[in-house]
Amino acid sequence: MPLPPLVRRACRLVGCLALVAGLAAAGTAAAEPPVAGRPLPPWQPGQLDIHQINTGTGDAALFILPDGTTFLLDAGAVNRTGEREPNYDAPQRPDASLRPGETIVRYLRRFHPDGPEGALDYAMLTHFHGDHMGTLTADAPVSASGAYRLTGITDVGDAVRIRTLLDRDWPAYDYPAPSGGAMMLNYRAFLKWQIENRGLAVERFQPGRSDQIVLRRAADRYPNFEVRNIAANGQVWTGTGTAVRNRFPPGILPIENNCSLAFRLTYGAFTYFNGGDLSGQLSPRDPAWGEMESAVAWVTGPVDAHALNHHGTNDSANAFFLSVLQPRIHILSTYASSQPSPDVMRRMLSERIYPGPRDIFITNSGWPGRREIMVKLFGEPDTAWLLAQIEGAASRQGHVVLRVDPGGDHYRVVVLDDSRWEGNVVSVHGPYQSRGAKTAVTSR
Ligand SMILES: [Zn+2]
Q1: How far is the CA of 131 from the centre of ligand 1 (A)?
Q2: Is the CB of residue 316 less than 8 Å from the CB of residue 322?
Q3: Roughly how many angstroms between the first and final C-alpha of the chain, as a whole number?
Q4: What is residue 402's three-state secondary structure?
Q5: Which of 4, 9, 207, 424 is at a distance of 20 to 30 A from 315, taking alpha carbons?
Q6: How many whole angstroms from 372 Cα to the centroid of ligand 1?
Q7: What are the C-alpha distances in Å from 215 to residues 71, 289, 364, 402?
Q8: 4 CA distance to ligand 1 centroid (A)?
Q9: Distance CA 89, CA 91 (A)
Q10: What SS3 state is found at 230?
């Protein structure tokens, strides 16, 4: 429908995107916009929320899908005391009075669309590292059942009912090698008890499929929603049907990071990618199969937003990957002094790799003693340059919430204060027009 002349004139004055987004919002059940200094307005049916939760100890993301289906991706609670020098890793947020898993639970209870007692329809682990599932420390308490100890995902699943849990290696846990480590044995004891006592279903994440994470409540109302499984254990979707091909040669032992699962979420015109800790940038001596990002990029295609692979560590975000995905929004879920590296920041910012604007949102940036560690890692000039770029990021600290409007044509990025338990909105960015949306004029 052509715009009336007055609206066209107003478009020229105030910017068409903002105006049309406002009109679109007015045409739907008026969702309350987020405002700095106030609590985040509750999720509304039709919206898609992706919360990158910041505990300071690794990755955890809550997805509230358009029909209210809930999905937790990872529940990191890393503890590298003794492995890394003091101040290498970020301090816990908002503080260490709760375990990180308990902090995630508190966050879930605050934002779950069914209220504090709501269950998780899905939980999923990208791979088996402490910053994604919880390090098993000597002081981790035993659950009330006595069957397992509490850290990360077992902490969350002990407090919040999980209906279906997906990981990359259920049920054998023998790839790339049989795992008898204490952390995995504890995780498997947790699965066993939850299956037998709370009706948990566990599934192996299968690349190529688009029917493992689905809308559980009103799928017919949102036919333009899909989660496509892209990769796991080196098996990568080909882009045709559900067919996959193996990226790893037989007989090799891939690193855990490269076994990460990856998926693409689409909601109408909006697209999001997450690939756990996949590697993408190798030294010339490394074998080519160790580079997973390019293999997943060409079947993923352009996206609006992504969480940087491997927290933006130096082996992530290669030029080909970025040139294909062309993200408008980079979410850096960071917890260590090495994240992001100066070279990753250069690639993210480079308009020679892909043109156009892009905004960077970082969950953790500054903490006491970090700069000295950065200088040891990167040298003084690169540290100074990187800190200046971080200073210029759209946000440098806090939970990062992608809030996609009903239908998927527009979205905002909302940063929440992570220095207190019930933190308010710090800043609101957008609205952005989703990459796949038709032009503002014809979308009306
Ligand atoms: Zn990680």
Answers
A1: 5
A2: no
A3: 6
A4: strand
A5: 207
A6: 22
A7: 10, 34, 32, 18
A8: 51
A9: 7
A10: strand
What are the tens digits of pLDDT across the range 174-214? Answer: 999 988 899 999 999 999 999 999 999 999 999 999 999 99
Please check the confidence at residue 115 and state whether its pLDDT lies above 80: yes
CA of 418 to the centre of ligand 1 (A): 20
Q: Which token pair is 155?
A: 């902490």
Sign of the CA dihedral 273, 256, 338, 316? negative
- Sorted by where each starts, the structural domains of the chain and their CATH numbers stand as 5-433 (3.60.15.10)
CA of residue 136 to ligand 1 center, whole Å: 15
CA 221 to the chain's CA centroid: 25
Q: How far is the CA of 349 from the centre of ligand 1 (A)?
A: 22
Give the pLDDT mean for 147-159. 98
Confidence at residue 439, expressed as pLDDT on a 0 to 100 scale: 62
Taking the centre of ligand 1 as the mean of its atom positions, its distance from the CA of residue 76, in whole angstroms, is 8
Dist. CA 435 → ligand 1 center (Å): 28
Task: Identify the CA nearest to 49 among candidates 122, 112, 114.
Answer: 112
Within 8 A by CB and 6+ apart from 416, the residues are 40, 398, 399, 400, 401, 423, 424, 425, 426
Rounded to the nearest angstrom, the distance between the alpha carbon of 111 and the centre of ligand 1 is 24
H-type alpha helices, 326-420: 342-349, 370-378, 380-391
Ligand 1 mean position, distance from CA 129 (Å): 7
Given this model, what pLDDT does residue 15 score? 43
